[in-house]
Design brief:
Chain A has 220 residues and is mostly helical. Chain A is built from 11 helices and 3 strands. The first copy, chain A, is 73% helix and 5% strand. In chain A, helix 2 packs across helix 3 and helix 5 runs antiparallel to helix 6. The longest helix of chain A is centred in the middle third of the chain and has 25 residues.
Chain lengths: 220, 220
DNA sequence: GGGACCAGCATTGCATACAATTCGCCGTCG
DNA sequence: CGACGGCGAATTGTATGCAATGCTGGTCCC
């Protein structure tokens, strides 16, 4: 049982991300402490951290609540993601190495096959490959702060859940974006790579926006 | 004596920003607690917060150290600032209101006069007007997360100290950028506004890069 | 009957005490 | 003489207790 703060952080974070803790729900330090099996001190540190990361909102003397997301927030998040990820893709195109290019190509190909052979909904393997693809681009881009900003946006519950709701057509478009990005990287065309990435993110926003508004509650 | 955490946070933050705490210096919780007059608990919360904001780095079981800045970090910071602030300027151009435009015009004019009549070094009034100008643009842009990201970058010690080292020629160019941005806003030209802002930030980077490398240490 | 105030309680904020970990020092051994 | 290892002080990590703050329910006055 390693670090108490780390355990508390991970448990609460996971709870928020996979919806076990509903938006707006109040988190009492004492309850969490008992549930996780540590004292209130590490709980407090974990909650402060999650607050600064935007996963919950903290009111002095009134405790923490799971963050709630207005439509404007969603728009902001996707808009910034488009800006930052397309920038990262452009940088990556300039600094692409043969090795990284091989790995990206392999990931893109595998995702295409998974989509073609899958049952139409995103599998775990596909989700993981998608995540690897984006992270590798950030790594090649070589800007740690940029990567940190993107990851901070990507972990927002809304973003995480969007990919799981992709329909077959969305998945095919997504896979084709990945293939196209690899082509852009092969040509070291920063403008092309950035443009495809922007399309990729805006398409994700469209998928989110076209959701059944009751889908979230229904899934609980 | 209001909130202990807030006091600790502000005091340590100020200490880092105006160089009283040297980069790389270790911060011991007990020492800070005694100096500020609170217990270690609020100190710890403040340090964790400053860690996440990037002003210091935290190693488990080894305490906190004031962040040190490699050249690559500087490049990253200015590069991201250029990306984010130019984006904000573009958004602001689209959403500009007559009232905000008046205030921006007044700030730009005032800064121009301060530069013309000043002694060649940036006065407090100029620094404040400059800060107001940039914040107002972010407000008009209307994206809270974007504003938060920019402010997070702007408070980096390196950025703060750069403006103070502006030479007369830098100040004149800066003032002229502000005037030009107002013109772009008057024309609701997002592309123009974004472009000027990008120039504005890149010029700041050039000013930093042209510094005397010993200037920081010599000032201590 | 409705609204404002006050008391008691629940919960967070801070301080202190204790446990665990790290790092430096020193002695010993190769 | 240098390297390795263990002991101890210093420092961080965690737990607990107490103080302060905000919320809730009930009562009293209008």
């Amino acid at each position: 049982m390693a670090k108490a703060v780390e355990r508390a952080y991970q448990i609460v974070r996971r709870g928020i991300l996979d919806g076990r803790l509903a938006p707006g729900e109040r988190l009492k330090e004492e309850d969490l402490a008992q549930e996780i099996g540590v004292s209130r001190t590490p709980i407090r540190e974990a909650l402060r951290r999650l607050d600064l990361e935007g996963l919950l909102s903290f009111v002095p003397n009134q405790g923490a609540r799971v963050a709630d997301w207005a439509d404007q927030d969603i728009e902001e998040i996707f808009s910034l993601r488009a800006l930052l990820e397309s920038h990262a893709a452009g940088l990556a195109a300039q600094r692409m190495t043969p090795d990284a290019l091989d790995r990206l190509r392999e990931l893109a190909t595998r995702m295409e096959q998974l989509v073609a052979s899958g049952d139409g909904s995103p599998s775990d393997a596909l989700t993981e490959a998608n995540s690897d693809f984006h992270h590798l681009i950030q790594e090649v881009a070589g800007n740690r702060r940029l990567a940190a900003m993107i990851n901070n946006l990507m972990e927002m519950p809304v973003i995480v859940s969007t990919f799981r709701r992709y329909r077959p057509a969305d998945l095919r478009r997504s896979a084709s974006h990945h293939i196209e990005m690899v082509a852009a990287f092969e040509n070291r065309d920063a403008d092309w790579a950035a443009s495809v990435m922007r399309s990729h993110v805006r398409a994700a926003y469209a998928t989110y926006a076209a959701r059944d508004p009751g889908a979230i509650k229904a899934a609980e």
